[in-house]
Amino acid sequence: MRVHKLTFATLAVAAGLLLTACQGDDDGTGKSAPSSASSASSASSTGGGSGSGGSGSGGSDQGGGKDSAGKSPAGKSSGGQGTAAGTGSKESGKAGKCRTDELEITAKDRTIDGDSDATVVVELKNRGGHSCAISGYAGVDLKTNAGSLSAKRTGEQAPSTILKDGQSTFFGISYPFNTSGGSGVRITGLLVTPPSETKSVSLPWPGAATLPVTDGSGSPVKVGPIGSAGQGG
Fold this sequence. Notes:
Blueprint: H1 2-56, H2 58-64, H3 74-91, E1 103-109, E2 117-126, E3 132-135, E4 139-144, E5 147-150, E6 152-153, E7 160-163, E8 168-176, E9 185-193, E10 201-203, E11 210-211, E12 222-223
Helix pairs in contact: 1-2, 2-3
Signal peptide: 1-24
Organism: Streptomyces triculaminicus
Protein name: DUF4232 domain-containing protein
């Protein structure tokens, strides 16, 4: 009899445990769906916020991130544009000034019949292998049997010029004809100093052989700015 009571008691305990376990399973399943929905809702909310943030502040996130192929997305494209702009900036930057040693300087007589003054045109050709900037007035001195005679500037505005390799610019030297009937002042050579340079180039004088003697009140020789004369004078 005691054995039957123990058996029934054992069965009752086992049934109670089984019922509790079933209820626990029902409760877990019931909570699982809301939890999943909550997680999905949270993920959706997070995804939406990230998309909006990416659109609004793509500078830092997109610039540092990379896709599965190892390439940066929109940020890298922006960086690439910056590099290209930098290269363009270097190419379009200021050229260095034209140096005497990089210029081929020649002078020719370009006097035109009927003009009141004679003209010599000086050509400066860029032989430096790169572009250079030149502007202002060149220094011009005539060598004569009476000493050096410096040309006076005309006062014209001096344009700024960029010379590519192989390109030339010109300026004119004007001086009076010697119509005095006397021997005048004999010209023996020409000295040209490019603008902003201290090194000069000595050239043969291609113009008239003499200048009229003056009273010393001023130089009769005038020089125009760089770019003031064409190849024809």
